[in-house]
Amino acid sequence: MRARDLLAAFPTITIDTPVSQAARLLAEQDLPGLIVIDEHGRPASILPGTQVLRLAVPGYCQDDPALARVIDEEHADHFLDALAGRTVREALPPRPRELPVTDPDATVLELAALMARTHSPLVAVMDEGRLLGAVTLQALLDRVTSL
Amino acid sequence: MRARDLLAAFPTITIDTPVSQAARLLAEQDLPGLIVIDEHGRPASILPGTQVLRLAVPGYCQDDPALARVIDEEHADHFLDALAGRTVREALPPRPRELPVTDPDATVLELAALMARTHSPLVAVMDEGRLLGAVTLQALLDRVTSL
């Protein structure tokens, strides 16, 4: 079994997508994360769901989640709205991290190692510079546990 | 909206659960991660799905996922079987990390900050030393994006 047998089409966003729209896409399509593509259609970043949240949560709250409690419930409920038109570009971490990207020949062990190493529940699959889709942790586990 | 409004019962494992069984639970119930409880029923560790994989992937493959390709496809497909009876206890990282645990009064902003900070798509909710359940990233996003 290879990446090509496990991959599925996966929605992408760009660095100009508003963070609030990215969060909605994640919620509505029940995705484990998002692939951010650059102007050439290649992955610029691959964000696990928790890192999409990171784009949306004020830094001081991440440094000390207890500080988030000083924000009253009404305002906390609408923290996504506070982002207004902020885009993924403005919220991405400055230094690029190792991207979980592989080719269609990767075995399930290679996919699992990439997910474990990069803490990413999805791996993008590229062939000759083209994004074919992604393999999710769920798809991988479904297959290896049913063999 | 508080953690108590978002939490749901969540299956738990113990440090004596075999890693292969943990992987099957994750796959079968489509969970974002697992809560490992100690003998007092308190969270000893909270593992995102990618970290459950980490328990199952040989260290040299995590250091360099390309090395995983030297394992042939047939053996790679069955990497979970190679674990045989290895338990979570033997595979957990030695130093405990900050656990994403909160109380029923936590606001959605606090929950989001905890998930972002600890890279965990689930937060355990405790009340007076008792585990009530967990809030998942998906449950949180579903609610905040539909407000």
TrEMBL record, chains A, B:
Residues 1-65, 94-147 form the CBS domain. Pfam families: CBS. Keywords: CBS domain. It comes from the Bacteria. PANTHER family: CBS DOMAIN-CONTAINING PROTEIN, CBS DOMAIN-CONTAINING PROTEIN CBSX3, MITOCHONDRIAL. This is CBS domain-containing protein. It comes from Spongiactinospora rosea. The lineage of its organism: Bacteria, Bacillati, Actinomycetota, Actinomycetes, Streptosporangiales.
